[in-house]
Amino acid sequence: MNTAADEVYSLLIPLTGDRLIVPRACVAEVVRFGAPKRSEGSQPWHLGAVNWNGRDLPVVSYEGLIGKDVPVPTGRTRIVVFVASTGELKTGFFGITTQGFPQLVRVNRDVLKLEATEGWPEGAPALCRVKMINEFPLIPDLERLEYLLARESIQA
């Protein structure tokens, strides 16, 4: 029998043709998409920064980070604001664009199984793909993503 300690509230974050799954505790807020101010010379996946609560929030396209095309924003595009945990980012937060609203789910070991540990470019911020009932979401490597974004910010 599962106890509350065995379950993790998580968010399924819709991307173009894929989904991410992350613990709810990593996410500070989901906000409406606003066009980021792009730095000259930045990587295509680094969309720039938006003003969020009086600070510059760096925003990335996860699709771009894993070698896919960066999607064109639509009326459904949002920014999922993540709490930075490594100390690499001075802002303390970063955003990932999403192609719709994240869905809250409860996850436990009975519904989550390892599916794949490859299928994206080497060095991409992805830990693995899991099978969750009829879904196959990616678990992002948020620490790697923060490192890449901090490095990009220094060089831009």
In short:
This protein has 156 residues and is mainly β. The chain has two helices and eleven strands; from the N terminus they run βββββαββββββα.
Task: Give a verbal description of the structure.
- By secondary structure, the chain is mostly beta strands.
- It has one domain: OB fold (Dihydrolipoamide Acetyltransferase, E2P) (Beta Barrel).
- The chain is built from 2 helices and 11 strands.
- The strands form 3 sheets. The chain has a 5-stranded mixed sheet. A 3-stranded antiparallel sheet has the order 2-1-8, with no helix packed on it.
- Strand 4 and strand 5 form a beta hairpin.
- The protein is globular.
- The model has no long low-confidence stretch (mean pLDDT 91).
What is the CATH top level name?
Answer: Mainly Beta
SSE-based structural type = mainly beta
Largest sheet: 5 strands, mixed
The CATH homologous superfamily corresponds to CheA-289, Domain 4
General shape: globular
State the domain count. Answer: 1
Compute the average pLDDT. Answer: 91
- Write down the Rg: 15 Å
Read across the widest sheet, the strand sequence of neighbours is 3-6-7-5-4
% residues in beta strands: 35-45%
* Total helical elements: 2
Question: How many strand segments?
Answer: 11
Q: Could you tell me the CATH topology label.
A: OB fold (Dihydrolipoamide Acetyltransferase, E2P)
Uncertain ranges: none
In helices, the fraction of residues equals 10-25%
**Roughly how many Å apart are the termini?**
51 Å
SSE topology string:
EEEEEHEEEEEEH
**Judging by the overall fold, what is the CATH architecture?**
Beta Barrel
